[in-house]
Design goal:
The chain is α+β, with helices and mostly antiparallel strands. The chain has helices at about 15-30, 60-80, and strands spanning about 5-10, 40-45, 50-60. Strand 2 (about 40-45) and strand 3 (about 50-60) form a beta hairpin.
Length: about 100
């Protein structure tokens, strides 16, 4: 199963406008097709501000394996927490939790 994940590139160093434009062009040229990139100013006055480019990319094989492993563990924990059981195991007259 292919899934898209959101990734970020941060531009922290202060530079001239021309240097910033060159950096953004370089980032844009390196993005995958259909990435829907967005540029935002992030941070605050205490910790500083930086530009952030967010974009979507295809999930790597390692990320998909990790996602699947944790998704199964999460599903099992929710089933135990809610007292969920499969329909075939429900006894007549008994209630079951549906989340």
């Amino acid at each position: 199963m292919s899934r898209r994940v959101k990734d970020f590139i941060e531009i922290r160093e202060c530079c001239s406008l021309d240097a910033l434009i060159e950096k953004l062009v370089e980032v844009r040229d390196g993005l995958p097709a259909g990435s829907d990139a967005v540029v935002k100013m992030r941070g605050d006055d205490v910790f500083g501000r930086h530009m952030s480019v967010s974009f979507y990319r295809e999930q790597t094989v390692e990320e998909a394996e990790c996602d699947a492993r944790y998704a199964n563990a999460y599903r099992e924990s929710r089933e135990q927490e809610l007292g969920y059981c499969e329909v075939s195991r429900v006894l007549p007259g008994k209630l079951r939790a549906v989340a």
